[in-house]
Each structure stands twice: as structure tokens, then as C-alpha cells.
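Let us work through a complete example step by step.
Step 1: write down the sequence.
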Amino acid sequence: MSGEKKYGLQLPKPKKNVFQDDDEEEFKEDDDNNNKDGYIDYIKQKQQQQQKLNTKVERQHNEAILEDPTAFEYDSVFDSIKKEKDKKLQIKQQQQLNNRESKYISSLMEQSNLKKKQFEKVKENQILKERELEGDKFKDKEIYITQAYKKKLENDRLEKEKQEKEEINEQTKKKDFFSFHRNLYFSIHENGT
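Step 2: predict the structure and record it as C-alpha cells.
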């Protein structure tokens, strides 16, 4: 056997210890017979370790089930949690759809109303200029003013007073360019006339 070549992992054979007792050699010979010429049976060791590990894991698994029977029911618990979240999300989405308001429509409506009022003022000024140009042409004719027109004039006067008060308050509060330009525009026209 010494002349044959061996391939693979070669572990050295254990050397005999000179200082060892004969009794220990007998015990060691029993172990050596199991290990086949001093080679360690790695497969058996690995299997034994795996069995120990499996028994330990099984014991922990059984203890956990005794403490809480639903400890390993991940899927059912996860599904129930997900269903609850989905229901809450659907309720929230329904509420948002029901209470849905546009972000910018209120400011756009305010600006639209303001521009309409300014347009009406411009029209009234044009009518007044036309009357002045006509001069005394229609001086002998009667002027008819309806109740609706009187109410409109009164509302316009009240809104103008209210708007002037608001402008004074807004000048200090607002910091956007629209109010700045509007104030600049009105200040130029007031100083110019």
C-alpha cells in the first residue's frame, strides 16, 4: 500500500504518544475501529450535528406553538392585516371623492369676479363719456331708472367701500405679485387723475 498513490484529501494518521497509558490505547482503538484507519467520518459528524440542530429547532417550534397557537400562521395574519388596510384605503378614497374640491378653482373664481367688476366699471365709464359727448342733445328727455338698476348701484357702492377696506388690509398681508401690480396700477391711475 505504501507504493500506491492516493488522491484527494489525505489526513495524517495520528501518531502514538509515548507518554500515553495502555488503558487509553484500548479506548482509542475502539474509536479508531469506528473511524477506519484514523480518518474522521465527516458525514456522520455532520448528520449528528444536524440531528441535534433539528431536535433543538423542533423543541423551540413546539414551545412557540404551546405559547401561541397562531405563531406560525403568517399568511392568514398578513392577509387579514392587508384586508384591513385595503378597507381603510377604500374608505379614505371614497371620502376624498365625495369631498373633492379643486385646488385652484376658488382663487380663479375670485379673479374672474374681480375682472367682471372691473369690466363693468370700464363700460360705465365709457357710457358716461358718451353722454358727456352728446351734451345737451337729450337734455329735454326723461331719465328712467329701474329698481333693479338702483339696487345694482347701491351694491356697487357698498362693494367699493368694502373693497377699499380690504385693500388696505391686504397690502400688509399679501406677498404675491398680483396684489403688488394691482396696487401699483391703481396708485398710478389715482395720481394721474
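Step 3: interpret the result. Residues 128 and 134 are 10 Å apart (CA to CA).
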